[in-house]
Each structure stands twice: as C-alpha cells, then as structure tokens.
Amino acid sequence: MNKLVSIVLMSVALSLSPVQAALLHTSGEAKLLALADQVQLDLQASSLAKTAAEAKQRVDKIVKVTEANLSPLLTDSDRFEASQLQIRAEYQYQERERVFVGYLAERSIMVELANLEGLTQILDAAMISGVNEVRQLLYKSSQEEQLKQQVRALAIADSYAKARHLAEGYNSQLGPVVEVNYRNQSAVPRMKMEGALMAVADSGGSSYQAAQLEYHDQVDVSFELVTEN
C-alpha cells in the first residue's frame, strides 16, 4: 500500500514541473547604401498675364517648346508628362487694399530619366525653354525592388541574431515566432541630400553628383523563450 502511494505522489510531482515559456520581444533593423542611376524631374511652368486667355496661351507655349527641345534628348526609356492647366486670379495688397494684378496660369512638367548622364543637358534645355522652376529632383535606383528585398532580409536576420543572443544570455532556448509586426512603408529610399547638390565645375559649367540612396527597413518580432524551472 505504501509503495502505491509513493508512486502516485511521484507522478503528480512530475506533472507539476512542465517546461514553461515566456515571450522575448526584439526588433531587427538594417540599411543599405546605393548610388542612384535614375531621376525624376518635377518642373514648373507658369505665366502671369492680364487675361486668363493670355496666361493660358503663354504657359501652354512654354510646355510645347520644352517638350520639343527635350524630345531629341530623351530615349525610349525616358518619359515626359505635363499636367493639366491650373489658373487663378492673383492679388497684391497695396496700402491695405487688395489689388488685382492678373491671372496666374501653371502647369507641372514631369520628366523621368532612366540614365543620369543626360541630366545636366536636360535641365539646361528646360531652362532655355522657359521653365520657371525646378521643384524637385527625385533620385531613384533601377534595382529598387531587389534592394528592398535585400534590406528586408537583413532586418529579419538581425532580429534573429539579437533574439538568439538574448536567449543565450538568460540560459534559455529560442522558441518559435509568436508575433511579427512589419511596417512596409519603412522600406523606402532616403536620399542623402549632399549627393544631389549641384557642384560648379572648374570649367565654369555645372554638373550633378550622383545621389546616394539609403534603404532602411525594420521588423518587430516576438519569440517564445523556452526555460525550465
């Protein structure tokens, strides 16, 4: 009888000491640097005139001349696109009175270049054609999708490396993934502005340095941390 009781008690004691699991939260981060090999130009054509018709006629002429001058410089891989006309009345305050000064007509011009080699020539041609403003030079990489996938894989590997190191530090084992939080919008290129600034050449002309793109990604992950009492 005593032997039977002792066996039962031993089995109960074993059932009360299972392997227990806690959660380990960590983040993986990674970044990649790449030189841009493409660029998008956001240009602005505008004209102020006394009548709306005259303002429209002037700005349409700027767009038409710009397209004609840029066309020989563009390849089949490049793109030229002009927006619809926007026109509004313009006023100025003179001696606290609002005075009508004319109608402002505006059209945006977008030029995508698959190669950076012709950038300076394109900009010069646009300015000669009457374009009023270069609003933005948006540099890109032709390998963007591959770079995004690569930096994402590095961020995932970083999360695993950190989690394994922490688990070892606590004399535990890294269990399966419990939860993953991923913000896809973080995997976007960030342009280092110093690379896009115009540099004046010794000859007196102008040239544009290749912009450096920084691809960054981050993933938050929770692992099961397996320990024994």
List the keywords.
2 domains, 30% helix, 4 helices, single chain, DUF541 domain-containing protein, Translation Initiation Factor IF3, alpha+beta, 4-stranded antiparallel β-sheet, elongated, 11 strands, signal, SIMPL/DUF541, 45% strand, Alpha-Beta Plaits, 229 residues
Task: Quickly describe the structure.
Residues 1-21 form the signal peptide. Keywords: Signal. This protein is of the alpha+beta class.
Helical/strand content category: alpha+beta
The level-1 CATH class of the largest domain: Alpha Beta
Helical stretch tally:
4
The CATH architecture of the largest domain would be 2-Layer Sandwich
CATH fold-level assignment of the largest domain: Translation Initiation Factor IF3
- How many angstroms separate the termini? 31 Å
Shape: elongated
Query: What's the mean pLDDT score?
Result: 83
Percent of residues in helices comes to 25-40%
Unreliable runs: 1-18, 193-205
Number of E-state strands: 11
Sheet-strand content, in percent, reads: over 45%
Radius of gyration: 31 Å
Q: Would you give an account of this structure?
A:
This protein is 30% helix and 45% strand. The chain is of the alpha+beta class and 229 residues long. The chain folds into 2 domains: 18-35 and 144-228, 2-Layer Sandwich (Translation Initiation Factor IF3); 38-140, Alpha-Beta Plaits (2-Layer Sandwich), CATH 3.30.70.2970. Strands 2, 3, 4, 5 and 6 form a 5-stranded antiparallel β-sheet that branches. Strands 1, 7, 8 and 11 form a 4-stranded antiparallel β-sheet that branches. Strand 4 and strand 5 form a beta hairpin. Residues 1-18 and 193-205 have low confidence and may be disordered. It comes from Agarivorans gilvus. InterPro entries: 26kDa_periplasmic_antigen (IPR052022), SIMPL/DUF541 (IPR007497).
